[in-house]
Amino acid sequence: MSFISKILFISLFLTTTISANSIDDKILEFEKNRFSNNKRVEIKNLSINFKKSLPVKNWYGYIIDIDAKIADKNVKAKDIVFSNGTVVSPDLFDIKTGNSLKEMMTLPLTSKYYDKKRLIAGNHDAKDKIVIFSDPLCPFCLDYVPDIIKFVNKNSQNIALYYYHFPLLQIHKAANALSKAMLVASNKGVKDVTLKVYEADFDSYFNADEADEKKILNAFNKVLKTNIKLDEIQNKEIQKEIQKDMLMGENVMVEGTPTIFINGEQDKTKNKYKQLGR
């Protein structure tokens, strides 16, 4: 279920009849009517962000951009629906595998995601490009990120690796301060910041739910042998950069970490990078 649906508490039956002119118009009209049934919701704008033909005859998947006001709060979100022009469904499943076709509904990256400031390994001009959204305290990320960095380093002329901060603050509160320290260190020209952080053992210094930024920064400085000041990571511009990274992730429907894009397409397997640089 999408973020907006959770807020609105609106149920969508497995198949619901719709009516309008073109199939795209039908989808937008259906979504507008569905959300407008809740009097707390004011729809400001609906648009089709992405449309994909499915491996099911005459069916399409849609990613809808929703701009709404809910209880005087502006909300921007995305919703995924499927339709053949006659009925609409919140999900479809492959009857053989049981897999949700939502797995296919991922947004491609634009060139703005290949920001040289976010390059952590490889060659910015390389044809093959990897973008990763990650949380430095995510257990799976801690195993995965060093491997992908080292792989790119071995193929440094042929691959570019870009890193975006995506701290999962609801479960890793300390990841925000750690991410800010990483960003400050990177801006200061400290080499291999990301790899050093992901290979470090911060467990002996603080817990993932630690809120004391000074304690987190002291550990960072000790482990990475830096001398970053507290006011540097508490600078509003640094926090804005972290928030910008997170927003860029949310704009392409990043929800968890690590999320990997290979040459603009999200890789659900997280293993396709091993085929690059050949």
Automatic annotation (TrEMBL):
Q: Would the keyword Hydrolase be found if you checked this record's keyword annotation?
A: no
Q: Record keywords: DNA repair included?
A: no
**Signal peptide limits:** 1-20
Which residues belong to any copy of the Thioredoxin-like fold domain? 118-277
- Cited CDD domains: DsbA_family
Q: Which UniProt keywords apply?
A: Signal
Query: Looking at the record's lineage, which domain of life comes first?
Result: Bacteria
Q: Which residues cross the membrane?
A: none
* InterPro entries linked to this entry: Thiol:disulfide_interchange, Thioredoxin-like_fold, Thioredoxin-like_sf
Q: What name does UniProt use for this protein?
A: Disulfide bond formation protein DsbA
Q: Source species, please?
A: Malaciobacter canalis
Q: What is the lineage of its organism?
A: Bacteria, Pseudomonadati, Campylobacterota, Epsilonproteobacteria, Campylobacterales
